[in-house]
Amino acid sequence: MKTDVILLRFGEIMLKGRNRARFENQMIQQIKRVLRPLPRAELLKESHGRMYVQLNGEDYEEAAVALGKVFGLSSFSPTVKAASELSALQNAVLQEMERQPAKPGTFKVSVRRVNKEFPYDTYEMHRLLGGHVLEHYPEIRVDVHDPEVELFVEIRNHESFVYSQKRPGPGGFPLGSNGKAMLMLSGGIDSPVAGWYAMKRGLRIEAVHFHSYPYTSERAKQKVVDLTRALADYAGSIHLHLVPFTEIQTRLKESCRDNLIITLMRRAMFRITEQIAHKRDALAIVTGESLGQVASQTLANMNVIGRAATLPVLRPLVMMDKQEIIPVAEQINTFNLSILPYEDCCTLFVPDSPSTNPSLKVVERQEQWMDWLPEAIREAVEKTELVLIKPDDKTDEDRLF
């Protein structure tokens, strides 16, 4: 579609009262970031708060794909911008009709009159604009109940907007508006989706991945880097913490009951993630856990494992099943990466019959016997590698030490 103006609509940030200006500023930063590859595009703000993008010749579809990755944006529309005058609005509704991919049989006009000083009321504008369309398209008719095309007209102080399409955005809150959290990122389907939902609710995330070299390969680590890169497409960049976990896993295998290995391993992971969170000023831990999906995700296990952390543990997918999670993974381009057949440290050393109903007292007593565990956790945190992942950046230039 050929257009030069995209009208933007925000969702829940409009309800934020005194914090609205802060949320809007964060939205503006994110929109400018995603539009950076389109240097001629400008983000503009109308006097009563409506924002729009002036493309100035940039491609609409490319801009639309970019805007579809801005959290807090509920929808947007390719729009005809016109002066707030009757003749200009009549010309604008004709332009919008001409942009339809197929000639409609029915239409309606829906007017929103924000400028109350406009000389015609809403009822008159329906008649004046609808009649103007019928003069130029006598073969079509008005259908106010189920039209093939609905022409939306927003009449504002100096500029008005006419559009007929609404393209959904991701919604939610602007990225970072609700703080920072650590995402426990495995190589599976669920945790990247959990990270996407966390970002949608306004959290800036840093990812924590546990690897067990040589039991897990460099390809498995690269898979997680690529998953982080897919999420970074929505955030601009994401820090990835790569935690060496081999020693802890092997010593757990040697020193504890087989049926408790998964529970104890996950508790160690939570403690490591929490220590990294304190260093990075994060206030929560995000996981991809889904209730009852595997042995470690029974309610009893989630209770015992979650008590290892003092920070809030956020589980966006806890009430979702795989049939609900997979379409989101496909939408955010992580599914094909997640199903690559590379090992994950969470699948190593899995006993034949892991406990699904562990006792917190028994688990804590087992940990007390493992006097080596606190030092092993401290060393794992110290040896964690930090990498800054950016979208479409295949280099290691941003590796930090």
Automatic annotation (TrEMBL):
THUMP domain sequence ranges: 61-166
Reaction catalysis annotation: [ThiI sulfur-carrier protein]-S-sulfanyl-L-cysteine + a uridine in tRNA + 2 reduced [2Fe-2S]-[ferredoxin] + ATP + H(+) = [ThiI sulfur-carrier protein]-L-cysteine + a 4-thiouridine in tRNA + 2 oxidized [2Fe-2S]-[ferredoxin] + AMP + diphosphate; [ThiS sulfur-carrier protein]-C-terminal Gly-Gly-AMP + S-sulfanyl-L-cysteinyl-[cysteine desulfurase] + AH2 = [ThiS sulfur-carrier protein]-C-terminal-Gly-aminoethanethioate + L-cysteinyl-[cysteine desulfurase] + A + AMP + 2 H(+)
Record bears the keyword Nucleotide-binding: yes
Main subcellular localisation: cytoplasm
Position of the signal peptide: none
Gene3D superfamilies: 3.30.2130.30, HUPs
Pathway recorded for this protein: Cofactor biosynthesis; thiamine diphosphate biosynthesis
RNA-binding listed as a keyword: yes
One matching Pfam family: THUMP
Superkingdom of source: Bacteria
InterPro entries: Rossmann-like_a/b/a_fold, ThiI_AANH, ThiI_fer, ThiI_N, THUMP_dom, THUMP_ThiI, tRNA_STrfase, tRNA_sulfurtransferase_ThiI
Protein purpose: Catalyzes the ATP-dependent transfer of a sulfur to tRNA to produce 4-thiouridine in position 8 of tRNAs, which functions as a near-UV photosensor. Also catalyzes the transfer of sulfur to the sulfur carrier protein ThiS, forming ThiS-thiocarboxylate. This is a step in the synthesis of thiazole, in the thiamine biosynthesis pathway. The sulfur is donated as persulfide by IscS.
Protein name per UniProt: Probable tRNA sulfurtransferase
Organism: Paenibacillus hodogayensis
